[in-house]
Amino acid sequence: MIWRSLLRDIGVLTAEHIFLVGIACLVATVVGVALGIAGTRNPRLRSVSLTVASILQTIPSLALFGFLIPIPIIGGIGMHTAILCLILYALLPVLRNTVVGISEVDAPAREAAVAMGMTGQELLRFVELPLAAPTIMAGIRTAVVTTIGTATIAAVIGGGGLGVLIFRGVASVDTLSILAGAIPAALLAIAADGVLNWVERRIRTGRSGPRV
Amino acid sequence: MAYGAAIPFLTFEDVSYRMNGRLVLQGVSFALEQGETLVLLGRSGSGKTTALRLVNRLLPPASGKIFLEGQDIATLDPIALRRRIGYVIQDVGLLPHWTIAKNVGLVPRLEGWPAAQVEERVNELLRQVDLPPEEYGLRYPHQLSGGQRQRAGVARALANRSKLLLFDEPFGALDPITRHELQRQFLDLRDRLGIASLFVTHDVSEALQLGTRIGLIEDGKLGELMTPDEFLKSEQVEARRFLDTLPVSPRRPE
Description:
A: 212 residues; 8 helices; 0% strand; B: alpha/beta
């Protein structure tokens, strides 16, 4: 049964796709938020990290996959190269939104917190991160949604995921196979956007509305 | 008074502050006694806010020394120092994601007071500033009026039983009636709790009402301290300029 094997492929490859995106976005979030926080304490680090992340973002994804293939250890053919590439792409929105979110924290609130004797760590934990959380969450959402799209290209370097069906379909002029890859990928992106948007709104309203 | 007149509560000894090579404060010296309110009166950019920010080490002096209860503040841990000193600014700076009760209890919680004790202290303070805790404690800052927010700001500044409060134009953004109410409350709290305060303003009538003494700051230099009565009779040019802004001769609160 061709349908049964197609459905099985879709299932396996969707799981693989989610795995690729999940790992990449998790790492990008940890690195991006940490770099962003460090950047708000160190203007040089902030401009360097934002510049590097912006440049990475401008490299076409196919080219970036291509660049990484000949590089030993971190590069080559396979899933790990694909994940590395996706991390580099997902970094910018998380990093940028962390920097912006923290620097937009209400200046009098920050001043009062410092003047009343918060240490740098307490300021981060009680003031900066909670107030920047919705903005950081928006960055994570952007990262996840774009990574779901970019991850379809990972199949080119043997990274797996739903791109496998798309590229197979393109190669064999099989529309069904293209759609079998493209539709689940699109649905994944829409679903992720919806869920993360909901999380973001919850954080925002849970924090008592407008700043004063 | 623990120290009497021998050791003033807060002392500035020839303090200067320099920013980008410019002297913002020059050789400022004064002594503040316990329970006293020293108003630093000056125009915008005169250096009065800078003087305030030196006290809790938000800024480091270029030269000179500041003593709090006889201790050179440069030798104290800035975090511990700041927790001993209340700080009230015009924009209040309550944390928007915290309830009023949580905001007011900030310093006691940072200091690791037991939760029950923090709650008790917060309720006591909210009552003192006319924000009944059962009504206002669980509200968020944006649900309060400007005057109520500033009351919460004052309560927060008092929370750790601070004996010194720093005020940076705290009532400047309020309507005249609310401002007057808060000024009254300030006098009441000061007399009841015996707190020393350093109060920065550019409003001469506020200075006359609240100050036990007034120091004029002009171009980073502090003039001789005067009582409000002396200030009213002063012939100094800058003092006269400030007094000329008064519509009628001001009445001292009884």
